[in-house]
What we know:
It contains 13 helices and 9 strands. Helix 2 (10-67) runs antiparallel to helix 7 (132-251) and helix 9 (303-321) runs parallel beside helix 10. The relative contact order is 0.07. It has helices at 2-8, 10-67, 74-87, 89-92, 94-99, 106-124, 132-251, 260-291, 303-321, 340-356, 389-396, 405-409, 416-426; strands at residues 299-301, 324-328, 333-334, 336-338, 363-371, 375-382, 430-436, 440-448, 456-457. The chain is rod-shaped, with a radius of gyration of 55 Å. The chain is α+β, with helices and mostly antiparallel strands. It has a 5-stranded mixed beta sheet, covered by helices on one side.
Amino acid sequence: MARNTWKRHAPLICVIVLFFGFQIFALHQLMVRNERHKAHISNVLWISAQLETEYLRFMGALDRFALGDGSVGAREMKHRFDILVSRLPLFLSGEKGQLFSHVAGAQNTILAINTMIEDIEPRLSTLLPGDTVEYRSIRDQLDTNRIAVHKMVLDTFLADEAITELILEEDDFIHWILVACLLGGVASGASLVILLVRQVGRAQLAEADARHERNRAIEADKVKSEFLANISHELRTPLNAIIGFAQVMQLELLGKLGNDRYRSYVEDIRRCATTLVDLIQDILDLSKVEAGKYELQKESVDLSDLARSSLRMVQHQADTNGIALSFEAPANLPRLHCDPKAVQQIMLNLLSNAIKFTQSGGRVSMQMRPSENVSMVIAVADDGIGMSKSEIEVALAPFGQVANVMTKRHPGTGLGLPLAKSLAELHGGRMEIESEANVGTRVTITLPLRRASNAHLAA
């Protein structure tokens, strides 16, 4: 029961685990985003600072070359120019170029510098030391764009600081939202775990209570069976004495009774006592079966003889009710290893029940046949009032009686079918009932042919 409780809440537990996993993943992605943003800001600042540095270095190299002091030659000046040119593509394309999209005027400044570079590059190759006119023209262009470069660097620093502060504020807001969700999830998850643990505990207690109640019911049923067995034994002894005294009086062994009405009373006493003994015997047998104390005394039995004996015992009941009895069995019926008393009890109960619920002029038949050499089939069929499926369930319950006109005419205890079923199962067999209202009933007993003899007797 406790395991089923965990299984029932497994989807909810999975949802909570996924929620926690998503929150942790979101926090991790937020930290990664912060680190990436810091790296991008650093790259932007470094690139813009490098551009201004290389711009100033080239201007210094140009000044020294034009003065002709010999410290910088044409080759050195060209090298500085190439370094400056190599910095420009970083602003124009790729991921780093996109970083400058938030700096106002940065892209226009870079395009202006690039246009200037294209203009002065062929002129630098022909510039000679002391050529003040060409030098001054190139230097004016450089001075004009130097101010724009410096302004771009300042704007980059200012913009990056503002953007960084804004992003950090947004990240802090998102961070605290995630932390709040995570804490809320932890609280709700902890509450759920506590509730689940308590529910599992209650389920375990309920399971223990149910087990205790089941054991009590089993013990009570055992006590009931033992009580019925004991009381049945105590009742049967005085009833046997009553039957014996009634027979002595009926035979007038000690003298004449006198009035004929006394003989009728004695017959009634004997018949009622015999009925009570039979009833008590059924209760005793059923109680022993339920208590597990019914011991089978098995031997090799000729079922044909046992069946004929049972039919003779119920012949008077059949004749009284106007019922025709018949018996069918193959000539070579195998002997059955069983308890003859129990099997005859099964036959008598089925036959008596069939006669009881069949109207005058009806038929009751008993058939026997071996089945695939592994079992013996005993069937009792009638064309009586029959039963519905629900009535069959009632009839199979101990002391269960189907309410109809036949039960009012022939009262009973309702132990016949349950006792027959229990005795058949005690032999390792089974009982099946096929019945239809106003058509009839067929009860089939199947008993295993264990230790059956190979001897065959004529039916």
